[in-house]
Specification:
The structure is a single chain. It is built from 3 helices and 5 strands; from the N terminus they run αααβββββ. With 149 residues, it is an alpha+beta fold. Strands 1, 2, 3, 4 and 5 form a 5-stranded antiparallel β-sheet that branches. A hairpin with a 2-residue loop joins β2 and β3. The longest helix has 29 residues. The protein starts with a helix and ends in a 5-residue tail after the last strand.
């Protein structure tokens, strides 16, 4: 066998590739299709995803909670002016939201600048809307655009 491999390395390589493709097609892919057909990754909630920007009570609360989080992370000497509404808000489904907004920041009364940010936030209690206004029931999954402040 070692002699064959040394004499015919290209044939051995082709045979190995064919064996890998056959295993993938006959063993791996049928398992993948079974997992896809199952409900293993199905999350059933009343909050559906939207590819278009939306404005709902939950997106407004998510926007307010993102602003609260930003204020808690910045130096108290920095003055922040928040707009009434975000630029855009998207629902990712299952009570996960992406908020795109801008704030006016000023560390000096004579100098101010507008900063755009994106905040990904999740409401942790799912379909139970009782604690939706409590910041402790939300998780900030990420914030970008404000790292240089």
């Amino acid at each position: 066998m070692k002699n064959f491999i040394k004499k015919h390395p290209i044939v051995t390589l082709l045979f190995g590739l064919a064996a890998l493709l056959l295993i993938q097609q006959k063993v791996v892919m049928p398992l993948v299709y079974e997992v896809i057909k199952s409900d293993a990754f199905l999350v059933d909630s009343n909050d559906k995803a939207s590819q278009l920007p939306i404005s709902t009570q939950l997106t407004e609360l998510a926007f307010a909670h993102c602003n609260t989080y930003i204020k808690s992370k910045l130096d108290p000497s920095i003055a922040i002016i928040y707009p009434d509404k975000p630029i855009n808000a998207w629902s990712l489904g299952n009570y996960q939201y992406v908020i795109n907004a801008e704030i006016t920041i000023s560390s000096d009364p004579s100098v101010s600048g507008i900063k755009k940010y994106a905040c990904r936030i999740t409401y942790n209690n799912g379909d139970n809307q009782d604690g939706v206004s409590d910041f402790d029931n939300w998780t900030i999954d990420g914030l970008s655009g404000l790292s240089d402040i």
